[in-house]
Every structure is written in structure tokens, then in C-alpha cells.
Design brief:
The chain has about 300 residues and is of the alpha+beta class. It has eleven helices and 17 strands.
């Protein structure tokens, strides 16, 4: 169920992440001021300083704005979504993609470029949108344990030392897989049962677009506000490389590469009291157990007046 949104009566703040995608924040801000600002009751652009929390900035902006536009990649969108889901009440969220994959923007159908997204904002409706929740932390795309958080750690360390070059992302993958010696031990409590796994990688998905892009099952369950848990059967680097190649080629098999469990919520324990967890391209250390669930309709988001075709 959607409702109309009167942009001409809205106080609007755009939060721009300089690091997202190509980093062309100046061009996007200029476009917003030229094309969107004249249609608003009031408009301001917020450029967070280095080290500032996007979530804190969005929470502060929500106190005196009607619409908060998140300009950046999925990490930026998740940070703003966290603030609005926790503190935003009736504040509406707008999405302008500026990252690499932009799964959240693609899920919403708002457009895959800033230009397309601005066109959506100029003629949009408000729709309730559900988000994933991990121990109170909002996620929009996925939460993963095992190899992927380690890849992110190595990648960010290389970026800090040598600059943000794509070759270092490939290097991070290679080094992590080469060093993968000890599989993750998981205990998942789901649907009244306890399941135990030894695996190199496990993830819970929330983005239907991401699942479809990799040819994985579960997209229809995500649309129904249910969570798919994928547990890789690989326990070694060699097995995970093979699964990754099949995933890239769209030849992944649930029975061969992953165990898949669908549920409304999961409680996951690991063999350590805390674990590095990747969520929407970010990485943090989280204490076990991990409780993963859905906050149904937690956000009010601007979407195209005409729903995207399925």
C-alpha cells in the first residue's frame, strides 16, 4: 500500500557520502540543488566529515526534516535506514544510488543512476519497506560470517595502505582463501530445531535483487518478509573457490553448494563469544548469539508512483 507524497511541502535533507562509488559527490549535489531543491519547501545538503557517524547525522536530521535522502552505496543507505527505523517515526527516506552494486535501490526500483533516482523523487509515492535486523543492527542486503568478513578486513587494510584500487580487492579474496584453514562452527536455532554446521561461509539474505543476480533461491521468500539462511557446504579454500566459480557462472546448486533454510527468524551461535560479521559491505565485531529477524514495514521510503515490473 502506497500513499502520495507532497514534495512541495517537505523539508528535505540529503546526506551525501563522498566515498561511495566514483566519489562524484559534487556532481550529484549540484544536480540535487538544480533539479530537486526547487520542488521542495526547504532543501539542505549534508556532507559528513571524516569519522562522523552517518547514522547519528541522519538521526539528528530526522528531528526537523520530513524527508532524508541517502546518497551513496548500500552502506550509506543502511546507516540512514538504521537512524530512521530507530528514531525517524514518520520521516520518509529517499534513495539516490552512488555505490558499486546498489542492491537496495534496485530492490526499490528507484533507478540505478543518480539521474534516474532524482526523477523518481520528483514523482514518488511513499511505501512501507521491511528491513533485516541483527541484534538491533539494520541490514538491507545480507549478513555474513566466515570468509567474507575476513576478505573485507584485508581489503580495507590494503586500501588504507595503498589506495582504493580494484586489484587489492582481488588480492584480499585470494589471500583470505589461501589462509582459510579452520572452518566456522555454527549452531542455528530455527523453527524450534537446532542445527549444527561446519562451514567456510554462511549468510542471511534480505535483498531479492542480490539473490536473483546470483541465481540463488529465496527471492520470493524475501518478498514475503522471510529470511533465507545459506550455509556453504565447503569447509576448505578449494571447496569455497569451486562454489564461488559456480556462483559467478550462475550454476550454483542448493544441494551441491549450499544448505538453505527459510524462517522468520534465526538465532545463531558460533564457536567464539564474538565474531566479525559483514553487513551491507561493512564489517563489525558482534557478540554471539546473533539474533536475525525482520522489522516489518520499519521504513517509509519514496518509490516510483508506478510499481516496478516483476
Amino acid at each position: 500500500m502506497t500513499e502520495t507524497f507532497d514534495l512541495s511541502q517537505a523539508r528535505v535533507a540529503a546526506i551525501l557520502n563522498r566515498k561511495a562509488g566514483s566519489g562524484n559527490g559534487d556532481g550529484v549535489e549540484a544536480m540535487l540543488r538544480e533539479r530537486l531543491a526547487p520542488a521542495c519547501a526547504a532543501f539542505s545538503a549534508i556532507r559528513p566529515a571524516k569519522g562522523q557517524s552517518l547514522t547519528d547525522i541522519a538521526a539528528a536530521a530526522a528531528r526537523d526534516h520530513d524527508l532524508i535522502i541517502a546518497v551513496g552505496g548500500d552502506g550509506t543507505q543502511a546507516a540512514v535506514a538504521q537512524a530512521l527505523a530507530d528514531h525517524g517515526a514518520d520521516v520518509v527516506m529517499g534513495v539516490v544510488p552512488g555505490g558499486t552494486f546498489n542492491y537496495f535501490a534496485r530492490d526499490l526500483g528507484v533507478g540505478e543512476t543518480p539521474e534516474q533516482a532524482v526523477e523518481t523523487l520528483l514523482n514518488a509515492h511513499v511505501a512501507p519497506v521491511s528491513v533485516g535486523d541483527m541484534n538491533g543492527k539494520v541490514f538491507l542486503n545480507n549478513v555474513s560470517l566466515g570468509a567474507y568478513p575476513e576478505i573485507l578486513e584485508r581489503r580495507e587494510d590494503a586500501y588504507r595502505r595503498f589506495g582504493r584500487r580494484r586489484i587489492f580487492a582481488y588480492w584480499a579474496v585470494l589471500r583470505t582463501l589461501m589462509d582459510l584453514r579452520h572452518p566456522l562452527k555454527l549452531t542455528a536455532h530455527v523453527n524450534g530445531e537446532t542445527k549444527q554446521f561446519r562451514t567456510a561461509l554462511a549468510f542471511v539474505a534480505q535483498s531479492e535483487t542480490q539473490l536473483e543476480s546470483f541465481g540463488l533461491e529465496g527471492a520470493e521468500d524475501v518478498k514475503r518478509d522471510r529470511l533465507p539462511l545459506f550455509v556453504a557446504k565447503a569447509t576448505t579454500a578449494r571447496g569455497l573457490i569451486g562454489a564461488a566459480l559456480r556462483l559467478a557462472l550462475g550454476k550454483t546448486s542448493r544441494g551441491e553448494d549450499f544448505d538453505l533454510i527459510i524462517a522468520d527468524e534465526f538465532v545463531i551461535n558460533t564457536d567464539r563469544p564474538t565474531r566479525h560479521v559483514a553487513h551491507d559491505g561493512e564489517r563489525s565485531r558482534v557478540p554471539a548469539p546473533l539474533k536475525l529477524t525482520i522489522r516489518k514495514g520499519a521504513l517509509r521510503v519514496l518509490v516510483p508512483a508506478e510499481p516496478k515490473a516483476n
